[in-house]
Design brief:
The chain has 23 helices and twelve strands. It is an alpha/beta fold. The chain folds into two domains: 246 residues, ABC transporter type 1, transmembrane domain (ABC transporter transmembrane region fold); 236 residues, 3-Layer(aba) Sandwich (Rossmann fold). The relative contact order is 0.08. It binds adenosine-5'-diphosphate. Adenosine-5'-diphosphate (ADP) binds next to helix 14.
Length: 610
């Protein structure tokens, strides 16, 4: 049950000092709870001596052998107090109660403050570690989880964990200490009354146990229901274009409402399980109190002192509050455990793409790329098979072929998003698996047809190519990418914030931003995934000119769709069903009248005789 607490405990390591201080204040706060009752009891007994005087006297006699001087002092004080209480003594005595209250408040505050301080930082760190871990997982694994699911784990699960911890850290220390302190006071001071009260106790435990089980079941599903809700929300918002175009609003809302309804009913089940035991215990406790009052009233002879009985009831009520908060804590811990399971599951997902223990340095300068008899399948379904392809340093190879032929798979193998099951991808003769991933990707630039633009300024989006680039370098890259003109034509120039996914830019402009980014990166290996959609002639020309600048001297793998790119390639490789069907220059392939010629005619019409 508590292994997740030990995992969290390990996360608090950087904040151990404050944590321990907070726990210490928690212990003091717990003891203060019981001390308050004692102080009130003593003050009442002194103010109403007829009622409690005998008890105080008995206590003092009991304590005499241990601290004779102190007892003598108190005796003198009490005697004086009973006869002619001086104003000073009265003020001193009665102010004991507010002073104790003040001390209890300050200690309780410090306890809550310090532990919250630690909790919020620990959970912040956990979020950062989660995001870091996710970003280092292989792309395929991240995609398998789904963005909505991941968002939900990062926000709502960590949030649930945070709420639970912030509250539980505080009562985890204070409440058990307070309960023990109360038990000591009760057993020492009000022995017979307490023993009677303890008879009621087992009756109170039964509902707690029953409802804790119900709660655990409900909360475990609650978090995954929440994830489904956020997944639906995420899909609806990220696909808002489709939703509007296909009039899917009511379908999406209907789906969403169904999930919300499932979540709601689970939530109410959890609420019932966490709210019912409290009142049940309260009723049971008051029944116990009524029985005891009745017994006192019916007892023949002395009924004992009212002050004592009042102090007893107060101790019971205050300690009950602590028990109740401990039950709440148990509920919170159950919720936190469910949330933490989902969080730690992510954190413990190992990456199957790891760096070797002693990575080789990535070759400098121009590098060739060799797909050395590479085969790769997604979950057993072959995507590329026996690919043997050398891209000499500084040359450009264009991949063509029908959709699903394996072009993107080859590009992602080069980026080492996956490792091939057979063969190896080599960079300057070295297997990618012998290199560390970061320096490897530092040597690559990607321009993909689905240009990713972050919701930020144009400057920021270009600088992503090489974080830390100077303004002059950014502008130079934009100029070479034929993007400078359209950027400066915007009223805010490089400071223009481009909307989510670059909504404020045209297709051609987005591509030129991506090309500027790749230029800024200045990497020797270039991976191009050209846009399939046709651009208008002017844009096409600008993008092509930008690409030409970009490709100079770089080893380029291009998933080619444009006529101009194909004709400029040093080698064209035709892929079909994951295998190389043909290779050669444009002219050679056209003259062979094979798949390439058919594809070419489909896209561009009859080739002109050259
Ligand atoms: P292309 O880029 O030529 O259109 P891909 O490389 O995308 O082809 O796909 C090659 C094959 O691999 C296809 O059959 C496709 O369905 C499959 N495939 C691609 N990506 C994945 C993936 N993430 N999971 C499972 N199968 C995939």
């Amino acid at each position: 049950m508590f292994d997740f607490l030990s995992k969290l405990w390990r996360l608090t390591l950087p904040y151990r000092g404050r944590l321990i201080l907070g726990i210490l204040f928690g212990v003091i706060a717990g003891v203060m709870e019981a001390a308050l009752v004692i102080v009130i009891y003593v003050v009442f007994a002194a103010v109403f001596p007829t009622d409690g005087g005998a008890q105080v006297e008995a206590e003092l006699t009991r304590l005499q052998p241990y601290a004779p001087d102190l007892v003598a002092f108190f005796r003198a004080q009490l005697a004086g107090f009973a006869q002619t209480p001086s104003t000073a003594a009265v003020v001193l005595l009665v102010s004991l109660i507010p002073l104790t209250m003040l001390a209890r408040g300050v200690v309780g505050y410090l306890n809550a403050y310090l532990l919250n301080w630690v909790a919020v930082r620990t959970l912040g760190d956990l979020r950062a570690r989660l995001l870091d871990h996710l970003l280092h997982l292989p792309l395929r694994m991240v995609q398998k989880f789904g963005t909505g699911e991941l968002m939900s784990r990062l926000t709502s699960d960590v949030g649930a964990l945070h709420n639970a911890l912030a509250a539980s850290f505080v009562s985890l220390v204070k409440d058990p200490v307070a309960i023990v302190a109360f038990l000591v006071v009760l057993l020492v001071k009000f022995q017979s009354l307490t023993l009677t009260a303890l008879l009621v106790f087992p009756v109170c435990v039964v509902p707690v146990v029953i409802y804790a089980r119900k709660l655990r079941k409900a909360t475990e599903r609650l978090q995954s229901d929440a994830a489904e809700v956020s997944q639906t929300m995420h899909q609806a918002l990220s696909g808002v274009w489709l939703v509007k175009a296909y009039n899917l609003e009511s379908t999406v809302i209907g789906d969403f409402m169904r999930r919300i309804a499932g979540y709601n009913s689970r939530w109410m089940r959890a609420t019932r399980a966490s709210e019912i035991p409290g009142p049940l215990i309260e009723v049971a406790a008051t029944v116990g109190l009524a029985i005891m009052l009745g017994a006192v009233a019916l007892r023949s002879g002395s009924r004992g002192s009212a002050t004592e009985f009042m102090a007893f009831v107060m101790a019971i009520i205050l300690s009950y509050q602590r028990v109740r908060s401990l039950i709440k804590l148990q509920n919170l811990l159950i919720q936190a455990r469910a949330a933490s399971r989902r969080v730690f599951e992510l954190l413990e997902t190992p990456s199957d793409l790891t760096d070797p223990p002693a990575p080789k340095p990535v070759p400098a300068g121009h590098i060739d790329v060799h797909f050395d008899r590479v085969s790769f399948s997604y979950d057993g379904k072959p995507a590329v098979e026996g690919i043997d392809l050398l891209i000499p340093a500084g040359k450009m190879v264009a991949l063509v072929g029908p959709s699903g032929a394996g072009k993107s798979t080859l590009a992602s193998l080069l980026l080492r998003f996956h490792d091939p099951q057979q063969g190896a991808v080599r960079l300057g003769g070295i297997d990618l698996r012998e290199l560390a991933q970061k320096p490897l990707r530092d040597r690559m630039a990607v321009v993909s047809q689905d240009v990713v633009i972050f919701h930020d300024t144009i400057r920021y989006n270009i600088a992503l190519g090489r974080p830390g680039a100077t303004e002059a370098e950014i502008i130079a890259a934009a100029q070479h990418a034929h993007a400078h003109e359209f950027i400066t034509a915007k009223p805010e120039g490089y400071d223009t914030v481009v909307g989510e996914r670059g909504a404020a830019l045209s297709g051609g402009q987005r591509q030129r931003i991506a090309i500027a980014r790749a230029l800024l990166r200045n990497a020797p290996i270039l991976i191009l995934d050209e846009a399939t959609s046709a651009l208008d002639t002017e844009s096409e020309r600008a993008v092509q000119a930008a690409l030409d600048t970009l490709m100079v001297g770089r080893t380029t793998l291009c998933i080619a769709h444009r006529l101009s790119t194909i004709q400029r390639a040093d080698l064209i490789v035709v892929l079909e069903h994951g295998r190389i069907a043909d290779r050669g220059t444009h002219e050679e392939l056209i003259s062979r009248k094979g798949l390439y010629r058919r594809l070419f005619e489909l896209q561009f019409g009859e080739p002109s005789p050259s």
